[in-house]
């Protein structure tokens, strides 16, 4: 018996990209600078990098290899409600908690992008209750025009215009996170999966 099923065929990234906003060498150069800065600032501390999944993954993997001080890593995930998959905003909820006790640790959050600011604001408030020694934010990308909730960004990779981007950890409907650069989507050419 033939059971029909639907195969989601995602378009090739070349067909939906309007421009490469930040190419691979520029990303790697900036991440090396951030790694140097973090290594200087965190000498003699008990550094814990916390990757906010899933967008922060690729950035974290490159950044941690540019940090020369001893440190630990952990992961957490949050989901937002009241917003479509491709928007941010809405209310935020924890969906994966840390394994590490962060009390008295020097915590640095590693995030792909700060957009409305709601995600980081939630995570900062939540983690603060666990009494880390310090708590700071490192974001690869910052879209300041979209801010709804003011949040501190202690280490910022790039400030970018208000355009939807993908690649280097950032997704378009959960695909294309593997691309080694940050690209802008051409909304006229991209057809989201059903
Ligand atoms: P915020 O809570 O509005 O700051 O949203 C942050 C989250 O929304 C990020 O961690 C991303 O997962 C997602 N996001 C915001 N802008 C973009 C984008 O341009 N491309 C892909 N994901 C984005
Ligand atoms: Mg994210």
Description:
The protein has 194 residues and is α/β, with parallel strands linked by helices. It has a single domain (13-32, 45-185), classed as Rossmann fold, CATH 3.40.50.2020. It contains 3 helices and 9 strands, in the order βαβαβββαββββ. It has helices at residues 24-41, 57-64, 118-128; strands at residues 17-22, 47-53, 71-81, 91-96, 106-114, 134-142, 155-159, 165-166, 182-185. Strands 4-3-2-5-6-7 form a 6-stranded mixed β-sheet, sandwiched between helices. Strands 1-9-8 form a 3-stranded antiparallel β-sheet, covered by helices on one side. α1 packs across α2 (57-64). It is globular, with a radius of gyration of 18 Å. The two termini are 25 Å apart. The relative contact order is 0.21.
Q: Briefly, what is this?
A:
Helices cover 19% and strands 30% of the residues.
For the structure shown, list the relevant keywords.
binds inosinic acid; 194 residues; globular; alpha/beta; 3 helices; binds magnesium ion; Rossmann fold; three-stranded antiparallel β-sheet
């Amino acid at each position: 018996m033939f059971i029909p099923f639907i195969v989601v065929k995602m378009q090739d990234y070349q067909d939906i990209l309007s421009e490469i906003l930040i190419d691979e060498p520029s990303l790697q150069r900036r991440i090396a600078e951030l790694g140097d800065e973090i290594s200087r600032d965190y000498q003699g501390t008990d550094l814990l990098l916390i990757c906010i999944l899933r967008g922060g993954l690729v950035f974290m993997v490159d950044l941690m290899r540019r940090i020369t001080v001893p440190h630990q890593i952990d992961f957490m995930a949050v989901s937002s409600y009241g917003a479509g998959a491709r928007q941010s905003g809405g209310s935020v909820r924890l969906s994966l908690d840390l394994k590490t006790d962060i009390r008295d640790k020097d915590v640095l959050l590693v995030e792909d992008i700060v957009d409305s600011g709601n995600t980081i604001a939630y995570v900062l408030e939540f983690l603060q209750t666990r009494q880390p020694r310090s708590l700071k934010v490192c974001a690869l990308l910052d879209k300041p025009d979209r801010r709804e909730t003011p949040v501190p960004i202690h280490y910022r990779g790039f400030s970018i215009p208000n355009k939807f981007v993908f690649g280097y950890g950032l997704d378009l409907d959960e695909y294309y996170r593997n691309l080694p650069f940050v690209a802008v989507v051409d909304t006229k050419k991209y057809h989201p999966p059903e």
